[in-house]
Amino acid sequence: MEEKRFRKNDSGFICLNCGFKVEPLGKSSRDHCPRCLCSIHIDINPGDRANDCLGLLRPIQVVTDPKKGYVIIYRCEKCGEVVRCRAAYPAKVQPDDIELLIKLTVPQQ
């Protein structure tokens, strides 16, 4: 039997990059700050909290997907891995900063 790759883990946290108090999303796993979009390299599979890297994931680009909406692409400042995460926009609780999402749709140099 195949193990589920996604685990709901919707807890709030304080952003380690900007100090913003991030509330739970309410429907899925909240894993990044809606203000600065940064995250922590804590998951191997979404919500599992099984990665011991714990480096800062800084957004480097946002792409659009017809089914997933905005997808944030991160690079870990500690190990260099590039990971993707669906943006929390729109969202009822603390939606991601739409201006920052749009700004990051242009590849950064």
Biggest pleated-sheet summary: 4 strands, antiparallel
Strand order of the largest sheet: 3-4-5-6
Q: Which word captures the global form?
A: globular
What is the total tally of β strands? 6
What are its keywords?
109 residues, mainly beta, four-stranded antiparallel beta sheet, two-stranded antiparallel sheet, 27% strand
Outline the secondary-structure elements.
Elements: E1 13-14, E2 21-22, E3 39-40, E4 56-65, E5 69-76, E6 82-86, H1 98-103
Antiparallel strand pairs: 1-2, 3-4, 4-5, 5-6
Put the structure in a nutshell.
The chain is mainly beta. It is 6% helix and 27% strand.
Walk me through what this model shows.
It is a single chain. The radius of gyration is 13 Å and the shape is globular. The chain has a four-stranded antiparallel β-sheet. A two-stranded antiparallel sheet has the order 1-2. A hairpin with a 5-residue loop joins strand 5 and strand 6 (82-86). It has 109 residues and is mainly beta. It has one helix at residues 98-103, and strands at 13-14, 21-22, 39-40, 56-65, 69-76, 82-86. The N and C termini lie far apart (44 Å).
